[in-house]
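Subject: for your reference before the review

Hello V.,

The reviewers asked for a structural picture of the protein, and I figured it would be easier to keep everything in one thread rather than splitting it across files. Below is the amino acid sequence we used in the manuscript, unchanged from the supplementary table.
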Amino acid sequence: MSEQSVEITVNGKTVSAKPGEMVIAAAERAGDFIPRFCYHPRMSSVGMCRQCLVEIDTGRGPMLQPSCMVPVSPGMTVDTESETTKRAQEGILELLLANHPLDCPVCDKGGECPLQDQAFSHGPGESRYIEEKRHYEKPIEISSLIMLDR
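And here is what came back from the structure prediction:
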């Protein structure tokens, strides 16, 4: 290990990371994909969607933390596949879909939608919500140059 790297453990594998690198980037380089919506490597992290929650143990016990907001630290242990992590990611996705119209078959983005992809791969499988979803007119002409598509 060089002085310019930090060793962490991701799902039982030792990973060498750059100091200050976010956990999500280090895990991805190690081959572990962490679902996300708001993270992009070329933009500053905001941690708004919470879809990238993982269990991180820095010596004080494992805690759910957004992997896009936590920089690596020496000896850190990250678990992206624990039952707690999976339940948290399913819960976040269920909340995101609570008012989603779920009209994927007729949506313009059907088949190319990150929300649809993650719902299939990381979602709970079924919703506990039975209430009527919000339905919006598509699209609404605000002016001759602007269309609002909700």
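For the response letter, the relevant points are probably these. The radius of gyration is 19 Å. The chain has a mean pLDDT of 87.

Happy to draft the paragraph if you're swamped.

O.
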